[in-house]
Structure formats: C-alpha cells, structure tokens
Amino acid sequence: MENKPETKEIIVLTGDRPTGKLHLGHFVGSIQNRLKLQNEAKKSFYMVADMQALTDNAENPEKIRINTLEVALDNLACGLDPAKTTMFIQSQIPEIAELALLFMNLVTLARLKRNPTVKSEMQQKGFGEDVPAGFLVYPVSQAADILFAKANLIPVGEDQKPMIEQTNEIVDSFNRIYGDTFKRVSHLVGETPRLVGTDGNSKMSKSLNNGIYLSDSDETIEKKVMEMYTDPNHIHVTDPGKVEGNVVFMYLDIFDTNKEEVADLKEQYKKGGLGDVILKKRLAKVLSEIITPIREKREKLAENPKMVMDILEEGTKKAREEAIQTLNEVRRAMKIDFF
Ligand code: ATP
Ligand code: MG
C-alpha cells in the first residue's frame, strides 16, 4: 500500500458489483478490511456498483437489480454498520456519471487497453474487439466513484490495483490542468489478496462459478469442498502427496486458525498415509464455522428487504450531497460553471 493516510483523515470507499452473491474471496480480499476501517475512518462509504455491473451485463438488468439487495445483505450480515458506513447505490447518483465523463478526456484508449485486469477480464468474457465501450472505460468510472467522495483509502482485492493506479493518474492530470482539486489515493489489500477458486483457478469469482458463498448451507459447503482439486497423483491414501498447488491446503493455510496442526497434516500428506477425505472434512468444518453465523444473520436480515432498501436510500441521499459538492468544485475548476 502506498502512504496510508493518517487515521483521523481516512476516507474509505469500497464496493461490489451486484453480479451475484458474495463469496469467501470478497470476505478475505476486502470485507474484513471494510469492517476494520469503518471503526477507524473519518468517513466510510460502501457502494453497490450497479452501473459498473451493467457494463458487461447490459442485457441482464434483472440480474443486476436482484443482486443489489443481495450484496447489501452480504455486507450487513458480515457486520458492515450503516451507522458507520454510508451505503449507497451508484446509479442513483448522476453526479458520478458526470464526473466519469469529464475524466474520460484525461485518459487515452491505448492506456485503457493496457490495464491488465481489464485485459484478462475481456479475455475471460471472450469480448475481443467487440468489447462494450462502457466496459473498457470502467476503470475511469471507478476513479469517479472514488473521487466524488474524496476517498483516500480503498480496501480491495489484488485485481483492483490497476484501477487505483488509473485513479492516481487521473488525479495527477486533473490537478495539473485544472488546479489542485484531488488527492492521490491508497489501496489496502486484504490478508489474502487473491483467493483461488475451488477449481484451482487463480481467482474465486462470481462470474466463474468457482466460489463458496457467504450464504451457502453446510451441505453445499461440504459438497464444494469434496469436489476440490488436490493432487491428481495422490490416488491411494498411502501415496505421497503434493502440498504446493493443492487447493485444500491453500484454503487450510488461510482459514484454519490451528497452524500447528495444519503443519503436521502437511508433513503426513507429503509422506503418504493421509487421505484427501479427512483433509476435506476438516476444511468443510472450518469453513462452516466461519460462514454459519454470517448466513444466519443474513437469513434474518433477508426477512425484511424494505429495511435494507431504506438503509441504501438513506445512504444514497447522504452520499449524493458529497457528490454535488465535489461536482460544483470540479465544474468551477474546469470553467463549466455557467449558471
Ligand atoms: P465479477 O466477476 O462480477 O467481477 P467478482 O467476484 O470479481 O465479480 P467484484 O464485485 O468485482 O467481485 O469485487 C468486489 C471486491 O472483492 C473487489 O475489491 C475485489 O478485488 C474483491 N475480490 C473479488 N474476488 C476476490 C478474490 N477471489 N480474492 C480476493 N479479493 C477478491
Ligand atoms: Mg470483479
């Protein structure tokens, strides 16, 4: 992380794309830091990034609408506190879109095409040259999400680092041309910057169907863990097994708090004589212990969706006030403050 701002000056902003329910990757990559920072920061914002989700889901508006409630539920169930964190919906603040449009003048097409996360997401989605223009420019819109609130600390997973770099380039260009308006921002990556998927893919992702969700039942968790990739050459219990690249051990390293026992298990596994099923049962139990309280709180909150939507409405009003202020400042700086 570059130069974390002083505690009393921290303004946090984070968000999720409402493309599906949230999973363990979100939990370790970003949510844990969100929870910690909401207690430390001067201000804390949480955004449901529905406009961003539409950039690659233009034909599925219903999916994005439904999941707006779901991602809010996930965050509340984990402990995001609306009294500490202003929770809002991106699309309901038109000033963010205006800011994004103004920032587009400061970024070249060549630069956008070089963004490594966008590149790999384009490949994964098979867009090629037919990428929606809105998708290619989403890092610019993300700069607007951050800067309308003058946020300076962004808890994110590792895949979001290039977006923070892009934001800082925009800050520099804007200040150079129009005068000092924005400050550079820092990111804070979680203890696990990038959680692998249950299939061994380098990132657990809503779009890849390789996630264990914060709403999964014990049975589902166990089923997903049982299907996890271990070591393809570890066929008989007596065979020596590989620990490196073994998804079950990667998860145990992250989620099992008994490090000593995990170290012993690794030794046994390497020697031979430890079966995958025993390991997987242990992992399923560890994950259930983390997820069960979240799932139960989530189920309670889900009984009252109106309450959740009220929280988002209230938060959106509050966030919009900040956006209007920032936009007034930006329009003045850019000499488009006519009336
Ligand atoms: P999508 O596939 O729609 O992009 P996603 O699973 O990547 O969904 P996002 O809503 O894009 O989820 O990400 C929300 C936040 O969670 C971001 O800060 C992102 O970096 C973090 N995050 C998502 N997946 C992981 C992961 N596997 N490990 C660590 N952090 C993650
Ligand atoms: Mg993503």
Number of β-strand runs: 5
Overall average pLDDT: 95
Provide the number of structural domains.
2
Largest sheet: 3 strands, parallel
Cofactors and ligands present? adenosine-5'-triphosphate, magnesium ion
Taken as a percent bin, the fraction of beta residues is: 5-15%
Strand sequence of the main sheet, in spatial order? 1-2-3
Low-confidence stretches: none
SSE map:
Elements: E1 11-16, H1 24-40, E2 43-48, H2 50-54, H3 61-78, E3 86-89, H4 94-103, H5 109-114, H6 116-124, H7 133-136, H8 138-147, E4 153-156, H9 161-178, E5 186-189, H10 218-226, H11 247-255, H12 259-271, H13 276-302, H14 305-333
Parallel strand pairs: 1-2, 2-3, 4-5
Bound molecules: adenosine-5'-triphosphate (ATP) and magnesium ion.
Notes on the protein architecture:
The chain is mainly alpha-helical and 339 residues long. It has two domains: 7-196 and 304-334, 3-Layer(aba) Sandwich (Rossmann fold), CATH 3.40.50; 218-298, Tyrosyl-Transfer RNA Synthetase. It contains 14 helices and five strands. The protein has helices at residues 24-40, 50-54, 61-78, 94-103, 109-114, 116-124, 133-136, 138-147, 161-178, 218-226, 247-255, 259-271, 276-302, 305-333, and strands spanning 11-16, 43-48, 86-89, 153-156, 186-189. The strands form two sheets. Strands 1-2-3 form a three-stranded parallel beta sheet. A two-stranded parallel sheet has the order 4-5. Residues 16-17, 19, 25-26, 29-30, 156-157, 159-160, 194-195, 203-207 line the site of adenosine-5'-triphosphate.
